[in-house]
Input
Amino acid sequence: MATSEAAGEAFEQLPAALLATIMTKLDVSSIRSLASTCTVLRSCASQILHFLPNFHLLDVALSINLLRPLLPPNPYLRSLKVDCSKLDDSSIEDLVRPSLHDLSLHNCSDFSGKLLSQIGGQCKDLRSLYLDCVADKRGRAVHISNLEELLRGCTELKTLSLMFDISLFPRYNFARAWSSASENLTSLEIGYVSSVMVTELLSPNVGPNQPPDLLRPSILPGLQRLCLSVDYITDTMVETISKGLINLTHLDLRDAPIIEPRVSFDLTNASLQQINQHGKLKHLSLVRSQEFLITYFKRVNDLGILLMADRCSSMESICLGGFCRVTDSGFKTILHSCSTLYKLRVSHGMLLTNLVFLDISATSLSLTHVSLRWCNLLRNQAVISLASNLDLRVLDLRDCRNLRDEALQAISTLHKLKILLLDGTDITDAGLTYLRERVIGSLVSLSIRGCKRLTDKCISALFDPSSKQELQELDLSNLPNLSDNGIFSLAKSRVPILELRMRQCPLIGDISVMALASMQVDDDRSHGSSLRVLDLYNCGGITSLSFRWLKKPYFPRLRWLGVTGSLNRDMVDALARSRPFLHVAGHGEELGTDHWDGLYMHDNEELDELEQWLQEGEDESDDEEMEDVENNGEMIE
Output
């Protein structure tokens, strides 16, 4: 207390304008962290919100009652990024502001199309817009008129991401709506749209109810980046994109068919040779997802890849998923034709073998990102050859089931490696010791999910308590021989992990939760302080005892928790109410979709102090309710 008062007296000597200038350089969580230290900074923080240029708060979802005081009238606000999980149309007036240049609204499932209309009407100077899951809830809808008002009003847009289903818009006026889109638009991302709508949008003389002799002006003439999730990737769509978008540098197409595509609704060799007609493409991604149906690009073979490679010599990044008939010859052509390639991703490469990488050291390639997922013909020699690329930072070998410890020995030479994913490989505890000397100290993310031969000894094989660790994400899920003893060893190693996944481990129980809750990463932090994500879904030994250790003060930074919802529904619900900033997932959903695609780097301490500031005086009743539920559970037992 005396320290706080002394700090306040010291800050009182500083000009208010100086404090305000310093605080405008900080993010919202940092400002609230300072506000909790003394009354002077608290007062300054309240004032700074009236002219803060950036307001970014995506790690917690606030109700409008908590969010509104943080968003007072502010004509200087330029960038707003918010998780809208607890907001709806009644919040639009607080979010949509004329001064904004950058607006990013996530999880907008309870909003209707009114959100788009209001943005178009109010945000005339908007340069970047991201909208996610709009109108996902039943009873909410987005109409084509809402899209038209958005595009007509935001004439300065450069980047637009509409991450929701727009395939339900009527086709006959879909292209008309886009005719008023900003000519400055360089990047477009759409969550889901039909391939026919894309084709009609980008074709100057194709569309429903349009005279064949009437040519529309070019749509989206300056577009450089296009990312689409569609029903089918077709020849017609790919050819239309390749011909119509002359400035395209980044093309990312993904489909997830629900029935096997007919030839007229599929990708063939013919359209691959049309890609990159204008020679500007640097990134290409063509992926067929297995989300609904096990299906592949069956009409593309090595000839199609050879024809594509002739035009793609300047490619820097290539991602191919589901090309089941492409053999080593096709993939090898890519490596030898694209001399500037640094990122290669192949998934479901059913005919991909070691031969592709056998002479990779003789090429001029300097790969930094390699993903070879579900390539079951790969053996250890492929990884040994790849390891000649000493600049590798990301290596994804998930579900390559024939990789063994010899591959880990080769990986141990990659001292720049940051992300290593080994799910489902045939590695052992002894093999992991290869990583301990040089690689584990540089890794930020490691996944050994589903490696059935691993036991508790894998933890001691990886982590030395006396060495410095940078690891932030660790996935130990689906390891049948991992028990509480292994997690106890992990806790003793004091690795500063932010995300720990242990789902579907039958031998993991309450002792693991207790060990993690008592874990101290360093002398200055509280118990269990580093963990932000903890996935315990379907762990065999978790009982109601664990929920006592999931209450505060334990795990104070925790934001995502995965448990088995049927374990004790009342207790799960009580925990969610007692920790409203904690996302409790009880239905087996993965926590943080695509969590391996980026590195998780946030200041956890600042975010926790934001929660503390917002919740002053609100915790006691929730904790009492949690205790009542526990007591009732014990009586029943």
User: Anything to note?
Assistant: The chain has a mean pLDDT of 87. The radius of gyration is 27 Å. The chain has 24 helices and 20 strands. The first strand starts at residue 54 and ends at 61.
